[in-house]
Amino acid sequence: MSTATEALEYNVEKIREDFPILKREVNGYPLVYFDNAATSQTPQQVIDTIVEYYSNYNANIHRGVHALSQEATDKYEQARHIIQKHFNAEKAHEIIFTSGTTHGINLVANGFASLLKKGDEIIVSALEHHSNIVPWQILAEKTGAILKVIPMNQEGELIYPAFEELLSENTKLVFVNHVSNALGTVNPIEKIIAKAHEYDAAVLIDGAQAAPHIKADVQALDVDFYVVSAHKMCGPTGIGMLYGKEKWLNKLPPYQGGGEMIATVTFEKTTYADLPHKFEAGTPNICGGIAFGAALDYMNALGFEKIAAYEEELLHYATKKLLEIDGMEIYGVSKEKTAVISFNINGMHPYDIGTILDKLGIAVRTGHHCAQPIMDFYKIPGTVRASFSFYNTKEEIDAFIKAVIKAKTMLS
Amino acid sequence: MSKSIQEIQEEIIDEFSMFDDWMQRYEYMIELGKSLPLIDEKYKIEENLIKGCQSKVWVHAELNGEKLEFTADSDAIITKGIVAILIRAFSGHHPSDILEADTQFIDEIGLKEHLSPTRANGLVSMIKQLKMYAIAYQTQLK
Fold it and tell me: Fe-S metabolism associated domain spans which residues (chain B) (predicted)?
């Protein structure tokens, strides 16, 4: 296919029209939103779904006999099927609605508390977000399991051979992110999963940063647990999903008790509901779940391959332009990375750069990105992180580069 | 007679009123950061670190007669400028004057956004810390 045809097929200006927020100004400048790794913006189609829910069929689900409850239940369960199809789960009940990635990880960590014993080993990677570290530390404390860490190299990649050495017959669980939030590195999860399975260890993949860019196929990956947040992929906040293989979800005890998750309750004995309800206590985020489905429909209509190709173009363009700036240091230079650039200039504090960029209407993230071990590895207080999405443009990157140069001049 | 906190704040407002855009204000603030009375290295310790900042800010207080004097430092230039402005206004006064003083002038010199408690620069924590020192030393003076 020629570049001209591809360009015609990917009309970013038309896509931008779907996102009302992209029309606004910040501090007198057109908004340039490069904080997509923190949260993505919401297309009108998803906003409409939310409005439609509250305007037309807001009701509690699964219990009501009335029409609204039935409609809401249908839509909510349809959303579960959309998610199932998107991640290619074998069964719909392997998709558990959560409040987000952090909730999914805690649910699994909590469940493993009853499966682990003293001396068991669990493996984390050096590239994790705090939310994929702390729940496991709590688990290790509770059970006496030993937490081991896969080290990283200067390029911001995991050192795979070191992972192989950490594995043993005591390894029960491995949890790694698909993509690093601080650096954008895509981890070799296929290899990690296959190798861990040789030792009968379960693998949880934190897909929060991968999901907006890469369509994960949980069956092809043979992953045991995969967790994501909707708000990173054009959906609302407060909703996410945990995929778990049926055999694992049956093994784990319920996380929270309450309505929805029971079969029968007496004071002598309560029996739990089947999957997925066993893990969905209480009234869920119904509207959020339905909107999550709408977000996936929206992104799939654009096509993940096209999104990935376009974002890669943005990544290369921005990387090249940034490297032309004197004193530029980019962290995370793996060949396999998503459209995230973490950088510092000449020892300038990321907070200073971020503050000036904000004054120029540009939204980036500054700080340790909830990944302090990575910052400690590079011996820096933090970085400026620009993360791109499929609705960003090269013109926005040009404005961003100009702003970075301006910030550098002001701070020198 | 040395200037009161109120007078110094008005002086700062006057200086900032000469600028018509944010860029000049920030450039001036960065300039002011360079005049910050720097904290002695031996006080750059964990307990003098102000919580709630993305950048590191250390503040130390010492009584000189009945006047409380502050020294500080930060690893970020803009933060250093903000600290410098605060310290210029508050340092060298009686603790009870420091306790009574308000911080509206920050808003008036066009740095309102830094006053937001949700902003991760810890300006609000910095002000709180200066006032905490004032409370501590006020008790000592009594």
Answer: 14-132
